[in-house]
What we know:
Layout: H1 14-17, E1 21-30, E2 33-43, E3 48-52, H2 59-66, E4 74-79, E5 82-84, H3 89-94, E6 97-100, H4 112-117, H5 131-144, H6 160-173, E7 178-182, H7 190-205, E8 209-213, H8 217-223, E9 226-231, E10 234-240, H9 246-254, E11 272-280, E12 288-293, E13 297-302, H10 308-315, E14 323-328, E15 331-333, H11 338-343, E16 346-349, H12 353-356, H13 364-369, H14 373-376, E17 377-378, E18 381-382, H15 384-397, H16 414-426, E19 432-436, H17 444-459, E20 463-467, H18 471-477, E21 480-485, E22 488-494, H19 500-508
Parallel strand pairs: 3-8, 3-9, 6-7, 7-8, 13-20, 13-21, 16-19, 19-20
Antiparallel strand pairs: 1-2, 1-4, 4-5, 9-10, 11-12, 11-14, 14-15, 17-18, 21-22
The structure holds adenosine-5'-triphosphate (ATP) and magnesium ion.
Amino acid sequence: MLMKAEKKSEPASAENDMPVLTLNGVTKTFPGVTALSEVSLELFPGKVTALVGENGAGKSTVVKILTGIYQPNGGQIEIDGSPIRFPTAQDAGDAGVTAIHQETVLFDELSVAENVFLGHAPRGRFGLIDTSVMMDRAREILEGIGANIEPRTKLKDLGIANKHLVAIARALSIDARVVIMDEPTAALSQKEIEELYELVEELKTQGKAILFISHKFDEIFRIADSYTVFRDGALVGNGAIADVTEAELVKMMVGREVSQIFPNREHNTGDEILVVEGYEHPTEFADISFTLRRGEILGFYGLVGAGRSEFMQSLFGITRPSAGEVTIDGEREIIRSPADAVGKGIVYVPEDRGRQGAIAALPIFQNVTLPSLGRTSKNGFLKLAEEFKLAREYTERLDLRAASLDTDVGNLSGGNQQKVVIAKWLATQPKVIILDEPTKGIDIGSKAAVHEFMAELAAEGLAVIMVSSEIPEVLGMSDRVIVMREGRIAAELSGDDMAPETLVRHAAGI
Ligand SMILES: Nc1ncnc2c1ncn2[C@@H]1O[C@H](COP(=O)(O)OP(=O)(O)OP(=O)(O)O)[C@@H](O)[C@H]1O
Ligand SMILES: [Mg+2]
């Protein structure tokens, strides 16, 4: 199972036998961390290779090495069998390697088209950028991926899913032979995900080699031809997708069996802690009423675009509802801002944790304790030992992998950064926590730890609202489920009514 990607059941055409791109014994170290240890990888034309591994296994580090962002400490990159180096990102692009990164590197103040063509804009006479050609080509590429985005729009005016589509368009604007996608579907809606799969098929027929990084097993089995597994920066297995089961892949990744069993929860909930009545927004949602009890986990299911996140943001004071009332712990409240919400005991962990979440240049422990300084300071003096203790407790319970709590959050892997954001809000000990897609981007082994922690906190009396698009998670964790469709509550389900078909039926309105 090691080293060489097997290609069974494939009629071996001459083209398929030769990898476009090879990583040969590549090592990458950072101070105190070996991110990659002599890993090898081969990418073939017209094939999708899935790269899987836990949070921090080294997947994004490979992407950065292949795109000239990091230089390896050892080993080599080969294109068509010849060694090559990528001292800069430009060199990787020139060699035909392009990537959609996990944390998209785009510029808010530039237009969509400028972002797509930054560094390789079409030029006219005198070497000046030909804006109209650039706009036309950007429009063409965006239409080609089913994105309805005007190329002149400033990037900052787009939502997260559209920004991601711009990043995809950027990758496609370079006529690449190798396309790398680092968790490309994490920020997309179901419809956009389907379009992305179609795009991947199209790229395959064009003979491009694709490296696809994902924590979602359904999509790996749907679109990948072969797999490569990393654990702790080392290669642990590779082969054809047709020859492996999900359980085997998980075992290679995590090093043990992972049962997808959800924590056994006692459904004894306490007093009403939150009552929402008639919440309404001019365009996003209407007529939202429900109650939440201490110790309860209330799932919010719906298709992307059903208005769940918009409602949660309003409940958290990011936007103002046009009507509606909130009662927290028996007191009628008006939530004027997020700070106001936190003060009243409601916190919200957004889906887009990259931007709204952590401070990259500060160490983990400070990020975690920042909003709960009241818990760790005495007479205004921070108690360092207390801060560490609090940070350690919450990060350990969320299965955070880091060299130490002094590590800057910016140096953590994407999934581990997300765990820091969740830890930081849980550490404030709120009365109500709203978790928006809590396990998105988190590997399958750590997911169980996050679920376990949620269950423990609920048992201690925390009231949890969990927005999730994953049916097993919604059904496995929730005491009750509210299904939203087109900005309204379509159903409130409990007990035996909590079944996959029922959820889907209400979400789709059939
Ligand atoms: N610039 C850096 N400085 C220090 N350590 C780093 C840096 N970049 C990555 N690392 C470390 O290298 C290891 C691999 O990180 P990487 O981002 O490649 O993980 P990943 O497999 O992409 O994980 P995820 O699934 O969470 O995205 C981690 O331990 C990470 O903390
Ligand atoms: Mg990553």
